[in-house]
Amino acid sequence: MTLFDFKTTSQPEPANRGPVRTLIASPDLGLVNAVQTTAQLMTDRIMLVSIAPAAGLIEGMLGTSQPEIIVLDAEFAREMGEQPFFDLLGKLGQTIALVVFPPVSNVAAVQNRLAQFSPVRGSFPKPCDPQALLAEAARQALTERVRLEQTSPLLSSPTRPVSHGGQLNICVIAFKKGGVGKTTVAVSLWDWFNKNLGSSLLVGFDTPDDCAAQLHLSPQPNMLQYFHTPTFEGLRASIQKFQGQADVILSPGDDRMAQKELSEASKGGQIIGSQIIRELLVEAAMANPGYHAIIMDVPPSYDAYAIRPMAFANRLLLVIEPDLQCLTKAVDGIEKFAERAHEPIDRNKIAVVINRWTPVTKYQVKDIEEGFRQGLGGWCPPIIARIPYDENVREYQVDGLIPGARKGPFAESIDALGQYFTGQSAQATTKRSLFPFKLPQVKVG
Ligand SMILES: Nc1ncnc2c1ncn2[C@@H]1O[C@H](COP(=O)(O)OP(=O)(O)O)[C@@H](O)[C@H]1O
Ligand SMILES: [Mg+2]
To answer: Are 348 and 236 in the same domain?
Structure first.
């Protein structure tokens, strides 16, 4: 019999802790040699899978050696030109990047530009310490592994995401048109997650923040607290509690200030620009105790406050109204997103919700599907819900009430939407509504 019943640490070990598959791409032999030698001393964390001494080799090596991270030398931009170099950053797919660059007079401007590419996790002027560089590569790639583990497969389980290994729904409600009901759906869905799954976070990115208006919250504190102190403490300081319990992070409130803050954002002494938005979301996704879902309401634009959350989400909910204008914008938006985010769109992420359906609506779901197919080369995102026009919705909001939490046709649709996301079976209630909708048998992911 043993006397000490030692408990193992309560922190769950991520499933995959093996060394990070790393590609080094640089024409600079000195750097390559230094990195190679250092990597041999860090085999627990780094596995060099390939070395690309010429830019032309990189794309092929991405395919054959499937690196998790590339250490990429911007020296290549001198021979291949700046634009082709930036284009290369857009073709990295799942591989994330640390960029090193030759001495320049405008370090902050270069770092800021590089940070706009979603695969880039950091950039460093040369000469840089190879050990610090590889340690950062390992840290970034391991963080990415945890994020991917937590966010796939797409359907959430009703267990806690961090402590019990369930999946985290990171859902962004987006569409490049105002007034279609994005904020209304986001707020109600967040409330549904809070009540049916557990603690969930609402993040507003639009300025001024309509979530604040709908929930009757004050504009401060907001995400600027995190921008100024990008740590877990900063995240805590940025959160407001709705009715003393449900977590909300509001946007900076004013669009001019929001843009200015992005241009100055830094973390660990490095200017990271709009990547601060991603850092905030990583911090929230990793928070312990964890959230069951993160619901994000983004502005109807393609600026960083929309693109960064859309690129981070594992669910992209397009809220449209049943008219030709919305259909055209949705098709256009799905194509443009890939361009703006500098990464191919993962079509499995997208689902469409048609809002403000009325008895006289002419468009049927099949017409909308047909429109998508024509615009998107034969593909149509799953149309997962039809939400009826409900005249009480606005009036509830005037009183600071969440429409999804009141009885009525709108609430029934939100309930069905929540069940769709979580895979929870319908409650044993017989619901009657003027325009009931059936969820089509489409599975995302
Ligand atoms: N299903 C619905 N039925 C009736 N009114 C709705 C519905 N969805 C949204 N609304 C109303 O439409 C207006 C715009 O909604 P909002 O969520 O602010 O749109 P967005 O965020 O896309 O700009 C609000 O006044 C809201 O109350
Ligand atoms: Mg809105």
So the answer is: yes
